[in-house]
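As the next step, I wrote out a protein sequence along with its fold in token form, included below for the reader:
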Amino acid sequence: MNRQTAERTTTIEQLLHGTAVLIPALNEEEALPAVLAVLPMDRLHTVVVADNGSTDHTASIARAAGATVVREPRRGYGAACLAGIAHLAALPTPPHAVAFLDADHPEDAASLPLLLDPLARGADLALGVRAHPDGSHGNLRTHARWGNRVVLTATRLLFGHRFQDLPPFRAIRFTALQRLAMDDRDWGWTLQMQLRAVRHGLRIVEIDAPHRARAHGRSKISGRLGMSLRVGAKMFYTLARERVRGREAI
């Protein structure tokens, strides 16, 4: 290991200690244990599971693993994330960075140091682009993949930034996250963050992150055509809303 690599490893380790992991979860008692088992709990600032109204043992499993449980009974991915962020902001010592993980992908938890590397190099926002080493498409069915492409194309045309993905696996400096003033309460969350990051001039880096189909259950969004259509409609609403807000800010 050369000196530069050693120094970067040390920096990432330091960043780990200042990173909070936020996991929105809804009825994930089967999948969540594998994610929490991979996380280096004793080397992180904190691990927060934002329980989005689960009716199973998600909350008790999270607590038993050493995570802090924040309850947000109003359903919505963004609502769960906002509840977790509010908890972090109220801590005596807020985190330096926040990493968002899905509750059903342990490979994301294992790739956390990889995701934090761009932040160690000066980035504000790191996006873990879903790469499929096994040749599959993970949880993304055909309709979801095409919908993703359409939204990304519209993003490039309207906002002038070419993204590869809208991944849930991401890390952002906490001060930068607060500047974005996120307010989406459901499926527009990931897109809103990326659009506002562009508007605020954040330094954005995309990296490939291994992604496989979930081991338990079915995706609550891409697993159903009807739900994917609803999510797609919300994405276009988010594009239009953020476009208007961007013009008003000029």
User: Anything to note?
Assistant: Strands lie at 19-25, 46-51, 68-71, 97-100, 125-131, 170-173, 204-210. The radius of gyration is 17 Å. The longest helix spans residues 225-249.
